[in-house]
Amino acid sequence: MKRLIHILCLSLLIGAGQAHAEDQVLGWQKFKVKDAQKDRPIEGLVWYPAENDARVKRIQSNGVWVGVDAAKKATPLEGQRPFVVLSHGLYGNERNQNWLAEALVTKGYIVASLSHPGTSSWLRDTGDARQLWERPRDVSRVISHLLDDDTFAPRIDPKNIFMGGHSLGGWTAVWLAGGRYDGDKVKTDCAADPSELICKIGDTWRIAKTEEDIVSMEQDLSDPRIKAIAVFDLGGTQTFAPETLSTIKTPLLVIGAPKPSMGSLDLDRESRALIASLPKDNVRYIEPTSLTHFDFLGVCTDRGMDILENEVPGDGELCEGGTDERIADHALISDAVISFFADP
């Protein structure tokens, strides 16, 4: 009965965003978190259902990426709506999942995407990267900021806050759900096999190399405001203490990407290992055979693969499969996420 009531309530919220579908557009604007943590500025984008009162144009497009059609600073539609925060992967950015933001907004959601200092495309300071515990805090800070924003606070339903993350963003998502870093486990695993990706990254960024940093990494940074979480082909599962994964209460949708590609992760050590450690009644898992690790990025142009390959040999695989295949994969992912958030 409670689940039925939840579905009906969320349907009403989403319906409010679709009531004038013929008139609404995809609105967007930039945000900058305003809080006490001045040493780590967080910026990003808010995507939302908007009045058709501003010019719609193609944004975030170039020779490689298709981009999306949106109206900058268009007036947000009235009414409370479910809210999603998206976290990018290693050296990604706030634009990486603009396609998912567009799909969610079409269904009535408000979406925030951010760039994490230290691990984003244009913010690669190794000192910031070392402080990986700040990643989940970044997400929580974005939630707090927009819940206090004059424009968006009245339009966000605080009882329907969700989160999604890709790759390192998926690792961030599990931390927000209640997973906790286990320094002793990582030390033991890396002593046994230093070639593991988590060990190489840990050494390069000097992660958890001091007692103070270990304490920061092992703290509980779960956010109870987040109702459900979508995890997209995460990396770093083996860094979590198994006992913290087994007690996670936040519902999780985990999507693994099994198709071999340049960025392929070992699913037996990552997504499959994660779901094996989670409470069985609290997780949904899908592993579509067509998905590669980079299918969670934007849609590539017909020339995208060649451009990337010419710039850096091997990078063309970011666009593997071509435009049509990625559009189809995005539809599959979006449908799974929207269905899950409606009934977690």
Note the topology.
Layout: H1 2-18, E1 25-32, E2 43-50, E3 56-59, E4 68-72, E5 81-87, H2 98-106, E6 110-115, H3 126-130, H4 134-147, E7 156-166, H5 168-177, H6 183-192, H7 197-205, H8 211-217, E8 226-232, H9 242-245, E9 252-255, H10 271-277, E10 283-286, H11 304-311, H12 322-342
Parallel strand pairs: 1-4, 5-6, 5-7, 7-8, 8-9, 9-10
Antiparallel strand pairs: 1-2, 2-6, 3-4
Helix pairs in contact: 2-12, 4-5
Describe this structure in words.
This protein has a single domain (2-342), classed as Rossmann fold. A ten-stranded mixed β-sheet has the order 3-4-1-2-6-5-7-8-9-10, sandwiched between helices. Strand 3 (56-59) and strand 4 (68-72) form a beta hairpin. Helix content is 35%, strand content 19%. The longest helix is centred in the last third of the chain and has 21 residues, at 322-342. It has helices at 2-18, 98-106, 126-130, 134-147, 168-177, 183-192, 197-205, 211-217, 242-245, 271-277, 304-311, 322-342; strands at residues 25-32, 43-50, 56-59, 68-72, 81-87, 110-115, 156-166, 226-232, 252-255, 283-286. The two termini are 14 Å apart. Residues 16-20 have low confidence and may be disordered. With 344 residues, the protein is α/β, with parallel strands linked by helices.
What are the defining features of this structure?
344 residues; alpha/beta; Rossmann fold; 12 helices; 10 strands; 35% helix; 19% strand
Write a compact overview of the structure shown.
The chain has 344 residues and is an alpha/beta fold. It is built from twelve helices and ten strands.
